[in-house]
Amino acid sequence: MLTKSHASKQAPKPREGAGKDGAGPAAPVAGSHEAAHDGHHRNPVMPLRTDWFDDVHVNLSATERRTATLTTRRSVKKAYQAAWLVKALTCIDLTTLAGDDTEGRVRRLALKARRPLRDDIVAALGLEDDPPKVGAVCVYPTMVAAAVKALDGSGIPVASVATGFPSGLTPLPQRLDEIRYAVDMGAAEIDIVITRAHVLTGQWQALHDEVAAMREACGAAHLKAILGTGDLRTLGNVYKASMVAMMAGADFIKTSTGKEEVNATLPVSLTMVRALRDYGERTGERIGFKPAGGLKTAKDALAWLTLMKEELGDRWLQPDLFRIGASSLLGDIERQLEHYVTGRYASAAHHALA
User: Fold this and answer.
1) One of 224, 290, 300, 320 is an active-site residue; which one?
2) Which is the catalytic residue, given 93, 191, 251, 300?
3) pTM of the complete model beyond 0.85
4) Is 299 a known active-site residue?
5) Cβ atoms of residues 189 and 226 within 8 Å
6) Rounded to whole angstroms, how far apart are CA atoms 112 and 158?
7) In what order do the strands lie in the sheet with 324-326?
8) Structural domains in the chain plus CATH codes
9) pLDDT digits (tens, 9 = 90+) for 114-165
10) Is 191 a catalytic residue?
11) Is there a catalytic annotation at residue 259?
12) Omega into 157 within 30° of 0, i.e. cis?
């Protein structure tokens, strides 16, 4: 039998130096910041401090060596692996961002978000008393109202991409209006895209001001800043863009739109995780992380969970601080969990579509 506590208790130990409980940076003082929709404290805007990253250099080969060990040095098997996959499921932003999206597709996605696993699998895992559900449903702004209606009473927030997704190259007033529209429709989280040109040309104040304006437009909704890391060229740029986005009030930093030629990779993710760890050590703020784009298999989910566990500890295995942007990933997780409980792999036709 499987319980929700297994995923943290039976996971690999956190890295050395993560703190006595492996929880990473200290929690903000209760009541010191404005609260978000779920009671989680918001990351306040602070002035740009380029001296926090001017002299930072990221060693590509060392980063690649570190991430190469994540899936080879240790692994989780059998009941432990099943527990980790249930944990990954609860951190998914179940996503549809297609040009042919319809309200019917969004309603179907919401049903899958509410019941991501078949009842017989839930029962076999011993989770009937508290069935797992995904972390959020992510859609375009015009689909927010349909998603909010379909998820009513579930406790699952609706996330909306905005700001000229995926390129982010529409005029700033228009991008801010798009945020406000999505929030007015009921979006509790906004996934914005930054202007990559600001990073490529080192215009850090312009990037800071842009993200801060988007943060203000979000109101009480969480802001997840998509860096479009596949377009940023160097890990140094990824680190600097991460720091600036957090200084400008981003509650999460996110790798990709899923539309770039290169999306989430472990070296990029390690760089961003180290940036948010450094930011937390300086400010005491806990910032969330969301890899997105290219995460399709249960094996991918385990690799990113291991990264979070080893670099930041158990606290970053919770959906308020870790999300996976994905659409097809859930299907493979469900398939692997069915194999765990039955010993057989089922065809995709045996699982409801996401």
Assistant:
1) 290
2) 191
3) yes
4) no
5) no
6) 14
7) 288-290, 252-254, 222-226, 189-193, 158-161, 136-139, 92-95, 324-326
8) 49-346 (3.20.20.70)
9) 999 999 999 999 999 999 999 999 999 999 999 999 999 999 999 999 999 9
10) yes
11) no
12) no
